[in-house]
Amino acid sequence: MKNKILTTAAGFGTVAVLALTGCSASSGPSADGAVTLQMVESLTNPARTELLRGLLDDFEKANPKITVNLVSPPTEQADAKIQQMLQSGKGVDVLEVRDITVGPFANNSWLYDLGPDLEKWDGWDALTDNAQSASVAADGKSYFVPYGFYGLSLFYRTDLVKDAGFDGPPHSWKDLLEQASAIQDPSNNIYGYAFRGGQNANSNVVAAIEAYTIDGLDVDDAFLMEDGSTIFAAPEAQDAVDDYFDLFKKASPPSAVSWGYPEMVAGFTNGTTAFLLQDPEVIATVQDSSLTEDQWDTAPLLVGPSGKAA
Hints:
The chain is of the alpha/beta class. It has helices spanning 46-62, 75-88, 102-107, 115-119, 129-134, 158-163, 173-183, 202-212, 235-251, 261-269, 282-287, and strands spanning 5-8, 15-21, 35-40, 66-71, 94-96, 111-112, 145-149, 153-157, 191-193, 273-278, 296-299.
């Protein structure tokens, strides 16, 4: 028996989703109808894994003949691991996909069209308009059901900001560069910004470019300007990139040139860096760290020269 695979997605500016694929990892039903499925997550961290496992435990209680094994690869390796599983056609029944992987996965016919199933699903009307819209791809098919949206926030060390003489967190990218540079003190192992130079480093620099080009930004496709040109060709994009890379030169640990998600979060939670741009799921990780509640807070995404953020 060939079973369909359930997939989910998560990440910066992404939709987190449930979907089905054409691959199979399950053991198939036993004589008594019992089935074991395997789920693979993409954005692995301890707090999030615990939450997912709890949801799966509830699912198993409601469906006693279904067992779901949760596989949690290290975050930086997870997408490659998931792709390998999908290519092999085995090892995964349920998985998370992200905005940067759902397209390739669908194009390779690894994802099942849930559209007809969603029409009969009594939970459809409980989804927000954004979630319903995001579940429909350009080809009109539904490869996933969104379970959440991720967006960047600024995490900051309240004590270091105050000690540097500032009244509050930075509001703009320029403010961030000013404050992070002022806080930078390598002799005491204190750095201004948790720069992302490793895997998926494009996400943070794109956030800066969108803020600098926002007055002409196509709100339906934020990689484009309203005239159809790419944001990366806009004159303002160069200003954004210059300011963003100044954050590395003037206010980041040298090793951050290769930092990905785990290193960025670790740099903030262990007290090495004062500022971090990340998704709200990091809140649980920070709460479990050595930082006390009065040492950190979050602020809205940084704005560009016109005072807006995308």
